[in-house]
Protein 1
Amino acid sequence: MTTLDDIIGRSQHQSWFSRIRNLQVFWVLAAAILACLALTLLTDTFASERNLFNVARNFAFVAIIAIGMTAVIASGGIDLSVGSSVVLSAMVISVAMASGLPFWFSALLALGAVLLVGLLNGVLIAYAGMPAFVVTLGTLSATRSLAMVLSDNKMIWQFGPDHDILLWVGGGSTFGLPHPLYVLTMLTIVMSLAFKWTRWGQHLFAIGSNENAAVLTGIPVKRLKVSIYMFSAFTAGLAGILMAGWLGSVTTSLGQAMELTVIAAAVIGGANLAGGEGTALGAVVGALLIEVIRNSLILLGISTFWQGMFIGTFIIVAVAFDRFRNFRT
Amino acid sequence: MSRLVISGLSKNFGAIQALSDVSLSIEPGEVLGLMGDNGAGKSTLVKIIAGNFRPSAGEIRIDGKEVHFHKPIDAQREGIEMVYQDLALADNLSAASNVFLGREPMRSLGPLKYIDYKRMNTVSAELFKLLKSETRPRDQVRKMSGGQRQAVAIARTLLSEPKIVIMDEPTAAISVRQVAEVLDLIRRLRDRGISVILISHRMPDIFSVSDRIAVLRRGELVSRKAAANSSPEEVTGLITGAIDAA
């Protein structure tokens, strides 16, 4: 006979596979791997070292910001200003370096500038209680404008005495892997741990699933929200510095509409716009899938006009998948 | 000695008198049913006790000591825990995470600190066992029944060995079987010597667990008597004003 204690004691640990199977990341990764395999068979160029290097580098920029975006989305918010933070960061570092400042100092200035944008977002959203969508829409416009003012809307392609360092940081490679990929790997590991094992991470998800509960349990919700928007801006700033080094020149159109790709990557990777869900790895896999689609269309000779169609379909399929999954349980 | 003594408590919001001169006491291990119509001042009263509002006049004593609460955390420190009507649970987190939300135990690994999930799960499992609830610490709250959710919210209050647990409408909007579960949970709190203040509109629930019943009408305490000496008819009359006072 089973007693009540037995029932209580019986844990419902599912098998390893059935747990994995329920994760959106798993299916998105499967789709990405499948696409890679198909492309390897269909084209000679996909599996070439050169192409894989490019894919790895290109997706890293979006993936880095998508991790920051996942934090924001999981907390129940949205950050539309990341694309503009990218250009602000790139512009600050290039203007500073062009004026003769060393790389490290200029990088700190760039990150400081975008952290201020994040601070502004966070304060307006958390303390003034304004909707995140509207606040970040405002800073999206204002921040890009600031970058234009700063550069007088000119292209900057000479970065002073530390010119080569910047190009090495963003465009170089070590052991055959592009540097942005190292940054992304570090960030993914650190943030995966932070989401799961720190109070900051745990409380972030609590805010996203029930903000009222978070307030009632004494979590410093407002301060935490500010830190989340600052983190998101930080990832955008990091990507901005790396992109400046990769491109070797910075124009004010850098990062335009990038926020949409970043949000798409986060959502495909399992971040829930209703809040409370999302993983760092998911954001990376989502960004990878988008880049593989983009790359495959080019390699297969399909008009690039079709890119939006494929990415759009994936966003909707990913969300539909999530709906069905929750419907079943 | 009484666990909680409230004397001459009044609260006004501008010109609106929400509570006037309410005096009340609760013994250890006693369940006090608090009844009254909407706007009678029940929520205002418990929110003052839980530190959400400050009273305009009057005093609160816990175990004979006068207390002044500025924030809910002050009341928590004195052993007063509140289970909110909407339960204040984060649906996407596990039961254990909800029990410990905002009070997560940490472990250190050199300079790094990380959440001690193992401890959270063991302690929560013990609390659920204590409450004789089938709730499992690792389950997501989203997938739980109303009764299990109540168990999570109540387990949270037990974490700090409370003296008084206040429950605001714990049996609203849940199934009959779950109501029975929640009433059992209340009895278990009582058996541990915890005083419970239960706000409810449901007469049968109040009468099945309360030792005493207090009735508020338009901010005034109109009755405070043993449940055994009262009846649902009398309480209904007191709430509506058909009976002046008892």
Protein 2
Amino acid sequence: MKKQIYIALLLLPIISMAQTIDRTKAPAPGKAPIIQIGNPVKFTLANGMQVFVVKNTKLPRVTASLAFDYDGFAEDDKAGVAEMAGQLLKRGTTTKSKAQLDEAVEFLGGSMSTSSQSAAVSSLKSNFPTLMSLMAEVVLHPALATDELEKIRKQTLSAIESNKDDADAISGNVVKKLVYGASHPYGEMMTTKTVNSITINDVKSFLSTYWKPNMAYLVFVGDIEPAVAKALAEKSFGAWAKGTATKQNFDKPVSPSQTYVAVIDRPASVQSVVTIATTVDLLPGSANVIAGSVMNNILGGGFSGRLFANLREKHAFTYGAYSSLNPSRQVGIFQAAASVRNEKTDSSVQELLNEINIILNEKVGDAELSRMKNYLSGGFARSLENPGTIAGFALSIVQNNLPADYYQKYLTNLAAVDAQKVQDAAKGLLNTSKMHIVIVGNAKQIAKGLDKYGPVKYFDIEGNEIAVPTETKADASLTPQSVMTKAIAAIGSAEAIAKVTDVALNGTADIMGQSLNMSQKIVIPGNSVTTMSMGGMALMKQAVVDGKYSVSQQGQEAPITDEVKEGLDESASIAPEQLYLAKGYGLKVVGVEKVNGKDAIDVEVTTPSKKVSHRFYDAATYLLVKTSKSEEVPGRGTVTQQQFYNAYQTVNGIQLASEMIIDMGAMKINVKYTDIKVNQGLKTSDLK
Amino acid sequence: MKNSRTYKYSINQSIIKHKIMQLRILMAVIGISSLSMANAQTNAIQFEKYTLPNGLKVILHEDHSAPVVAVTALYHVGSKNEDTARTGFAHFFEHLLFEGSENIKRGEFDKYITNAGGALNANTSQDRTFYFELLPSNQVDLGLWLESERMMHAKIEQIGVNTQREVVKEEKRQRMDNRPYGSFLNEVLKRAFKVHPYQWSPIGSMDHLNAAKLDEFINFYKTFYVPNNCVLSIAGDFNKADLKKKIEAYFGPIKKGANVIPRPTIKEPALGGEVRDVIQDNIQLPGVFQAYRAPKQGGDEYYAFNVLSTILSGGESSRMNKTLVDKKQQAVAAQSAPFFNEDEGLFITLAIANMGVKIESLELSMDSIVNDLKIDLVGEREFQKVKNQITTQIVTSNGTMAGIAESLANNEVYFGDANLINTELDKYNKVTRQDVLNVAKKYLNKDNRVVLYYVPKEKATTK
């Protein structure tokens, strides 16, 4: 039944079996091993489910995976429904709670997983039939309970929220959207809005549309007879009725007419995430796949690729630079990427493009080529140790309509790749005049010089094009003094401000999904204590009380510099602008900038200790909406910290921001004051 | 590659994974290694074992099911063999011995393997240092050459020592100093052991490494990196007769070590009372770490302990997960970990408190779960579940050539019985519910444990 095919690896020379060895140099590889790739047994159930059995008796273990084959579908305003459905499946069935299901699976010494397009189980042979029935129960009779959906929604939303701060996540999302287009399923993006709109009925409708036996492959790998597998498949899924899902057709993404640069501004970034990407016509199994893989690995595959050698080892722009090339039935993609220091963004784009041009225009050398072919053939041989690899080959042959001996001939075909084929593959796939160059970074610092690569466009973090930020000139009649005076008036009348003796703000600070207590107390004049704590423990505390300054973080006292004192003095004031005017701060109106979509006047403030920061006042209300401060941090370059002030409330006639976002780049803190009191009679002795 | 070289008993704790908003502790190696053994029921692992005249033990498992080979060298030297003034040496060598040899230029060791499509790494424990290369089978000679070069005449030079000293410091910063709770194993060990060298962990002291002279490194190499202190264990697709000739050619000329190999004989006395302490760390959530002194690996009690540990934290339906994480929601993560070694053992339970949960109440809940094990026999269905989980784990561990080669070498070095790979499941099958109750009663007592509270720095109020 099982046909074994033997192929000799033709790649490598044969060495003699001499017993004297020359230890001064590495031994030559031995005769290429015979690769045996067994053909799996295949059959189809009456309902159309295609079943593969890869028998491997090395261990008394069996794995079954059920994979659904559809080329993506447009989720539109429900983006995320497939992913959430996949997670929900494993959280209970119509007859078992999640806890009961977990126990049942673990009692068998087994494991189970589910995703948007698959379900899989694995256990020892003896328990496998029972485990298989649990898998069928999960697939055919899931509970799909709303309370479990809510738990998943909460986790998904917090993941989306934290991704908004994550430059790599932003880059991944925007690259997909720009390269594939928003209307292509590969370019869709989960957002808070789409996730919030998903209902249990959407989940049910997704599963009942796309989880159909005639769209599924059931793959058994391990110590199981094909006849036994067949009986199990029949018993588990034989009664499942077939159905049809309308195949959705999508327009093929079009390449940009010319290379352009997409900048996503992330002011807190200390590194730019640079990606050069393009779609590629690269069907699985097509002639260019193997030569393309050699080309891509020479260019940017791991530590030995040219990108790594150039951007990391030669120029030290980055910790790593890599490229990838993915064939696809729908539309493939090539990407070359690196996270680079802000000031080297332009140079990095240049070097990435240079290396792509070199592989396009020059033939690779023999040594480099044969080294890469050894690397790939060795990796291929090692991958065969996992029986799942064979199953993967079998699936790929069917799904991609490949010749039956495609993987058996892989090494022979790899051996036949020469320098000309590598160059041809590069030329067939890559065109440096039609690339997307996507950069997530601090636009102010990195944008200069990028227009030499093509038009520079700006996008938000969801990949929507936005206007090129323009530096509006401030009204010439504005002087720093007049801005300060208006800002003070915006906080409250002179009379109202003068009446304030103390302020107490209490609320929460959310950091990466954790909620801490946040409080600030001010006693006029010049006393303040701010505390961030958890369960009664202070994590951060800063204070100025009766002229004594202190700052501690997680129990460690920070040194008190003039800069720290200045900061604490500001925090002990209702209107620090009064301080600026009284104490000889340097003030300069710089211009107008958009803050949260509104014009704000940018005032540069230089403290007596010569520290520079920027304060942004709403151009209409003159309320403070943002502050920003940049610092040189050794080894990290310039680090920018921004604070945003929102949701002003009027208490006792003065305006206080009840919400604050502290954006430190790598970390973001959302502060919400829910309890604000003015003039409750606090004394400095209350400031602990 | 060098950056990712693993250091075995550093515990892999990822911090706050905001995606799941859950603290997840990956007890990567602890405990698992003690289960990475055999499958007695079916598919016995065939192997041949012999010793070269220079004392090198060789174990060969021939298997042609895939064109791969794992070449491994286990040296019976770990942190317990170190001088009290030179801790960290064994682990330091794990780095130093990738620097090169008489015939391998500096920095080339890794490249030979990656260019052959292979992978390599190494790790160090209290008891041994383990090197391995995973290769396509026609490159087995390359593995023999590299390992024999390492054993015969590695380059121990000042430049390599200086380079690797910085790498090790960086590793310590990354894995312990910068990682929440990352110091816990060090803190536990120094309180649990007073006289045995297990009181320090393999990373050792940076001051000791700084103070060490080149001569001392050369001497360590000459003492421990000798054929008579090594097991060469090779599994995979080769012709045994041919391979034996090659092994003879590559390793035969290496001279037997001239120095006596020091092995500690000191016995650690009983703990003699509960040891409690509070550790301040850069963490957000407090944690409780309890370490009970336990027997050394390999005895009947050791197998009972592994069963007990699976009852406590094997999978989502285990007691600690179900009670502390799901039901009471007192902990964001909870775990037990058998930490058994050649001379002595520890049994560790730990939990990281949920937001706003008092650390004292978390400890009470942990104690109550442990107490249940001392009072009642484990229910029959639960006991069967745990046995089933362990059986799967043991059987599955023989799924790769690398796993088989390592198990054979471990069993030979620790128990003088490579064949334990085929009989270990029997030892688990013999464990009864009464055995679990017995070890719980005998060892899981307050006067036999160290308890550490990890708290955010400011909170610590030592009285």
Protein 3
Amino acid sequence: MSTAPLPFTARPAPPPRSPGRRLLDRALARPSLASLVATVAVVVFFALQAPQLLSTGGVATVLDVAALLGIGGVAVAMLLIAGQFDLSVGVVATGSSLVTALLVSQAGWGLWPALGVSLAAALLTGLVNGLLVVSTGLPSFLVTLATFLVLQGTSIAVTEAVAGSGQISGLSSAAGWESVRAVFGVTVQLGEGRFRVSLLWWLGVTLLASWVLWRTRFGNAVLGSGGAPRPARELGVPVTRTTVLLFLGTAAAGWLIGTLGLVRLSGVQVDPVLGAEIEYVVVAVIGGCLLTGGYGSAVGASIGALLYAVAREGIVLAGWDPRWFQAFLGVLLLLALLANGVVRRRLLAVPRS
Amino acid sequence: MTGSQPPLPFEESFPGDRSTDAVSGDPTAPPAGTPVLELKGLSVRYGNVPALARVSARLRAGEVTCVLGENGAGKSTLVQVLSGVRRHDEGQMLLDGTAVRFRSPRQARARGIATVWQDLAVAPLLSVWRNFFLGCEPTRGVWPLRRLDREGARETTVRAMARVGVTDIDPDRPASALQAGERHSLAIARALHFGARVLVVDESSAPLTVSQHALVLQSVSAARDQGLAVVLVTHNTQYAHLVGDRFLLLAGGAVAGNLTRDDVDVDDLTRLVAGGDDLTTLVSVLRAAHPELR
């Protein structure tokens, strides 16, 4: 196929870049690069301050913290890539574990049916979030902030009213406890560290999300919905369905986090801490997701969770006042935002003709 | 054009402008000159203000119809109606002789009308091949292991871009690395690949360099040679005359002229688009002030 020659010709191709330069470009184009570098730096720093961080016990604690954060962070990262936001993961975690615990302790249900019902309740929350966002076109930050407040208030009030206190325990005598514990709570002792099965869930969620994002049509729809919503819609990308499904995904992740916590404590404690809700978003942003959508990765969010956990445990093990952690996290977030901005500008720079 | 098709009459009088022996890729395309899309007395009103008033035109396969006019002449409204963003209030739009009324751009696209928008929107951080296939990704394997055919998609993207004259492209680069002309080419290549029959190109609002313009015109003529009915909306008569077969002049929402390449040369065309008298006055004033101008 030859096209009609025109009286003037197109610009000659630019000279090819050197292989080293191309490799650098490729590396910089990866959303997770900055968080990986930062994690290595933080691990080295705290390993010098507190060598016990690298003992099996220290590693087990870090990974344990990272696992739950990572599951939520990965789900939120997928949503951020599609240009949306979810504040309600944490409260869905608490809420769904409360539903399970109440059904078991108050109504005498078996654990498995109770878990099924709480999963359905969590998915319903996700569905409401998703449908509200796509039907009203309101910013998902505000919509999920509203559902977060509603659920937070409701769960505290209902638990106090039904159970008489903010704490429900003693689930280990319920029917199905052994099998539930095998799936969500089994641990392995290696040296002085106790590794929990939540690690495998974290790994599984990260791998699944990563595969879905980069290797499936759904993943391309996620990237397209966040990167260019109007053209994506015109090209036939099911933006609405994708968004709702992603909200279902974060709700399911919230349920998983809640269930893992529930089985670990064999009970649930309602903890009215405001601010813990934001940490999944922080983790995703540290992992390289842009708040504007269209860019980010699941692996990055997992690395972000690891970074978060290393910093938190490192500060404790180094014997510092744990309250420094928040300040440290703020600095980290700021650095991540700046690094993401640099990467984005670099990628968006249109070559001059 | 395939060898069996006679060159169009006007091409003989402009042998320098284009080759008549360009090869068509699609043997099933209708012979050049068949009207694909026909507009009959199309009217669009915004409230009481007419944006298009009884516009009639025929868009033929294998021809480039240039829509020319000043700002506010109704060019954008025409693009919106053709691409399904807006519905017309009166008149008919006939696709292969059947009246159609699109409810959405997606519907228009499904019927084979592809539009290259003025803003050339791409997902900037997404790679070129992911942008190319956005919404129609090729897959392999069976569910739940159905996955993107990434190698195939990359190859197809490179091939499709080469078809419209953009060679040497790295399909893994983010689309933001493409220049405006190349984004035009990407959209046109996509339309060609997915079997569009009508291609509406709304010229970029961003200023294009000459070489970027060359890319656009090159891909427009590639689409023409594949037998598409091309609508090129522009205000640059110089470029329009290089590739256009027919010129639809709009003024105040109505058709002010429907000319073929035989009817006008580029100066006449410019004069007509600029409203004739205004430009003549301008030229005479300039010449009076600067006698060295011819």
